[in-house]
Design brief:
mainly alpha
């Protein structure tokens, strides 16, 4: 992490420690929630269905070994 980022963090911490305005603190907490949103929640319905189908196929043993995938892939290049 660069020093300028560290300095910015320290500046923010110092500023936050002096805040008395609850609305600003709430806004910052809401921003944090937005940033920390789980990637799963950000996927479309179709993407989630595809992922779930792939997971089910893997559980049922319907998978292709990595070596086989690489053989197929190498044929295209």
């Amino acid at each position: 992490m660069s020093i300028s980022i560290q300095n910015k963090k320290i500046e923010l911490i110092q500023w936050l420690s002096t805040l008395e305005d609850v609305s600003i603190i709430d806004s910052i907490l809401n921003l944090r929630k937005d940033v920390e949103t789980d990637w799963w929640d950000a996927q479309s319905k179709e993407e989630l269905q595809d992922i779930e189908q792939s997971m089910l196929q893997a559980k049922e043993g319907q998978i292709v070994d990595n070596e086989e995938v690489m053989k197929i892939f190498n044929k295209w290049h």
